[in-house]
Amino acid sequence: MFKIRKSDCTHCRLCMLACTAAHEPGLQSVKQARIHIEDDWPEIGGIEVCMACKEQLCIMTCPEDALTWNGHVVLDEDRCIKCHECVGACPYKGIMIHPSSNYPLYCDKCEGQFSCVNVCPTGAIKRR
Hints:
Blueprint: E1 2-4, H1 14-23, E2 36-40, E3 43-48, H2 57-61, E4 67-69, E5 73-75, H3 85-89, E6 96-97, E7 104-105, H4 115-119, E8 125-127
Antiparallel strand pairs: 1-8, 2-3, 4-5, 6-7
């Protein structure tokens, strides 16, 4: 899904803005982004996003079977109890929580558009 080189990331957060714009049209906030830039100054921070790992620990951990796989993680909001077990299970810290709905947010590759990749000025995040 993604290839990440955190040493190339300048923390501009354009990826986060592009993600939010793709999923929350008209909103100019990074709080709803499915990708997150972790600041760990003075160390190089990380790019946190669902890496579509083979283990799919988030799916296996969900007590309500609210998560399925369809090329990316799909959340069934009707089944989700917002326990956030999936968040803790992710080894990449790639699951964010929507600030108002409290549902977990998963990268869906912007339905194949890869908005974050398209705006990254340094190539720190690329399609795999």
